[in-house]
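Re: the pair you flagged

First of the two:
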Amino acid sequence: MPANLRLISKYYNQGSSFAVLDVGCGKQGAQIIKSFFPSCLYYGIDKEMPDDTGNLFKKYFQIDLTLLNFDVIPDDHFDLMIMSHVIEHLINGDEVIRRLIPKLKSKGLIYIEFPSLRSTKLPSKKGTL
């Protein structure tokens, strides 16, 4: 189990029905989260539509985060918001977070993952960040 999901599993078990908003879900976010938390209600946001939203998504929002238009996403709805390696790609990441916070329930959790300063010293592959 990936480290971020191990952390999440401290709050939610595999049989829990909780609403997840995966910000920047990418093409495989739904498969990964649903494989560990099959009963969760999975909502995804990304700029481009995944190949298959199928039955894994409760709802998919095709949104450019930098435009800060999140009106279609319900307020006070999500138990958990995940932003895994998204913030470092945004020019206005702090404002994106500020505007998405109201989408969480009052006791909701937000998980934000980003590269550390230490990662700037790792070898890089041509064509990558």
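Second of the two:
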Amino acid sequence: MLINRMNQKTSFEQEISKIAKNAGYGGIGILISNIIAYFSSAIVTRVIGADLYGIFLLANSALSIVSLFAVLGLNNGVLRYVSMYSGKNDLSRIKGSIIYCARVTLVASLLIGTVVFWLAPLLSEEIFHKPTLTIALKILIAGLPFSAITGIYLASLQGLQLIKLKVFVGTVFQPLSRLAFLVVLFLFGFKLLGVLWATVLSSMVTFVLAFYCLRKNCHCLSGKIAAIFERQQIINFSAPLFFESFLNTIIGTIDILMLGYFVASSSVGIYGIALRLSFIIALPLTAFNMIFAPIISNLYVRNEKEILGKLFKTVTKWIFTLSFAVFLVIVLFAKPILSIFGQDFVIGAFAVLILSFGRLIDAGVGSTGYMLMMTGRPKINLLNSAILCVLTIAMNLLLIPKYEIVGAAIGTAFSVAVINILRLLEVYYLEKIHPYQKSFLKPFASGILAASIVYILSYFFPYDHNIFLSFAFGILFLGLYIIFLRLFALDDEDVYILTLVGRRLKHVA
């Protein structure tokens, strides 16, 4: 019995080591990408204002749905088959998979792009009643073939296990290049056109870099190796994933599109920034999911459910610890943060709070979606996506006409909260595993205490209209949060994780 416990502890520590060492890398990549994105958004909103920013968001949301029909799920297909054939060193089929997926994507993107180009006036004037949207759609559609094929190339790099290149090209270079084009075009006096063409040009240069990296590292593409095309296998695998991607994209864009139908474009722009800010709360969940997802599958196959249950609790607590801090920062400083994007956006503070609460629940249930998927239940995940899609549309249709951006925020937050609670119940029913333990109360209590102190101090030193004072109070809050976490005492696994992080930082230094 003692030996079994020791073995379990060793296995648990090994898995925690993987998560602690690698989640940081994923988190840093996501953090850099988001810092660039938020900085770009602040520049854009300051230059073009809420009204034109709303037009851009509408066009971009519409193109997100259109791009699905250009890619047709083949990014998932090329990822799987390039990875599989790479393991077998089957260069002919690697080449065939990449070429076939790229060709189909090129043809599909040109066809769907042509259709959207000609339908742009109808969509803009008859459906959204915003004539300016026509030019936005026509310009953005020019970048569709480049962005669609880039997705195939990036998935190919991932399939070849060239993760650093994929992250650099897709996560760092693309937003950086867009930011550079934005600055140049704004300096020449372009406003909405500057945003649109910066997006298209960044898609073009990212396409060139992705092609160069893939060709340089996948020698079978430039060699005389004959390509073997496994068309039917790729289609059979990609088609079901296309439908799930379609549902998820509808979920992610429907609130913007429905707002565009019912309200002015300025309200769309304000809501878009509120939505973007709320997503920060989910960043720790995204970072941990990158590492925890394959570990779930590995432990489940080995029937090590006790270790899986412990990891689920530990990872969820750490996700909540980080996300709750971000949530409270947004609650305390919503108006000063929104003022960075321009005074027109401050009226979106209440919408930010509502959306943030929904994202906190998302983070608070942990990796429940991956717990279902990686334990062999993808159909349940697909059903959940369908339920979320229908619920989101229904709630937004009910609330937006009467409450506008606040209605969209309530509808979206409520739908996200409901589906995540459903996933939590499904995981517990199917696996008898839940992510909660008594120590979960420590970050909650620490956050409430730290936020209460800052809130009381704000009566004596109002910071709503002073960005520098807000920043100082934000640092104070985070410092108090960390102090209270330490005062409540750390668990053994927390100490172990912090020790690993400390070693990693010393190694980097």
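The radius of gyration is 24 Å.

-B.
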